[in-house]
Amino acid sequence: MSGADALHEACGVFGVFSANEDREAAPLVYYGLFSLQHRGQESAGIAALRDKSIECRKGMGLVGEVFTPESIVQLRGQAAIGHVRYSTSGSSSIENAQPFVSRFKLGSIAVAHNGTLTNADVVRELLEDSGVGFTSSSDSEVIVNLIAKNYKKGIERALTDTIKFIKGSYALLVLTDEALVGARDPNGIRPLCLGKLSLPGKPGKPDWLDTGWILASESCAIDAVGGEFVRDIEPGEVIIINKEQVLSFTFSEKTPRAVCAFEYVYFARPDSVLDGLDVYAARVRAGELLGRESAVAADLVIGVPDSGVPAAIGYGRATGTAYGLGIVKSKYVGRTFIAPEQADRERAVSVKHNVIRSEVEGKRVVVIDDSIVRGTTSRRLVSILRKAGAREVHIRICSPPVRFPCYFGIDTPHRKDLISNLNSVDELCASLGADSLAFISVEGLLESLNAAPAPAGKGRKNNSNSCGYCLGCFTGEYPIPVPGEDH
Ligand code: AMP
Q: What does the alpha-carbon distance between residue 304 and residue 80 come to, in Å, rounded to a whole number?
């Protein structure tokens, strides 16, 4: 799918190739997916390779709902890949759950994909014209069918041919009947990293070392299974892991790195390090810079859990404002964005956050959140903080206004639903009912990400292309052309 109606998917992928034939990979993937659950709560799936055959289980819901300890042990084999998926309304169905498996004359492959293709429609049509059937509306099935079509050339060629054909963002895991393969798009928009498994021996076999390799969306998932982070997969790199070797090659011409800045703002877990940058430290720094850019006299600074908390700590440090825990979040409510209807979203926000009255009563409070998209969260927070007796409520946001849709895998709604696209900061402040509102500047965000700001006078386009980050949702300048977006 492409254009404004695209199926936006922001997901997590995790794969294991164990060097020991009697080590089951699926349980490790299961734990890896648990720690990537924040990247997608709609469906989960695992495909495992055993005796050259791939078995896959997937379902709607959280990892713990789709799998039981009993069902996991039935997925046998030394290599496996898994996926957690998050998408918007209209696409929420089991047909779109991943991994996708294709069985054909020469073998089987399974694919797990995080990202969005900008030319999926075109590729789908070409494949359909050549007789390939589809069972879902997912971009990822386009990838699996393209690889399957080229498979007789050998996996390396099939992958390079596929990857040269597809455009957009992807962190891709492919399980073939002998290898685990990872690939990252030429701009490195979505994250992917490599880890090493080396766990102590099994009971009764003290010298047996459980070695192997891991590919994961985030480093926190490598930590979760006791693995060791090795390195990030480079933009445009393919890595093939089999019994004999770990082979890496670059499939694309050198393209500018354009890592998604929103991963650091919101999406990734703070205990992850993505592309060498510590997510927690980047968030604290963003809060400090926000404090330097738009401090306001206040008695207390609080962060909207979870992603607003590190930035609130940073803001407090930079401005000398006392930091406190003023908002409590229910851990058991999924990310509110998921609810397709606005009324449901508002209800979900109410269940999700509550205020600690004794902490905020009578105080001038600064509230830090990572972003404002539709404005649902901020409006509700201002209202409950006032109800709890806060004397003033000042909102500070550690990303620039989200004015443009994302076409590369983070779900941001249509332009018309992006509140900053329709309103100035002053109008938005009034509509939220806050005493003041400020967003970090694009330059401030880039500084928090240790990136150089754009050279003076070169304009936004240059900024987004040369800084190493994709800032498309803030600036409307995308690292690769998007059909329907004429820039
Ligand atoms: P909104 O309430 O519509 O203004 O959305 C902003 C809130 O949702 C912030 O508190 C973010 O933590 C969270 N958020 C931002 N972007 C996303 C996204 N792509 N998916 C889910 N939640 C998001």
A: 36
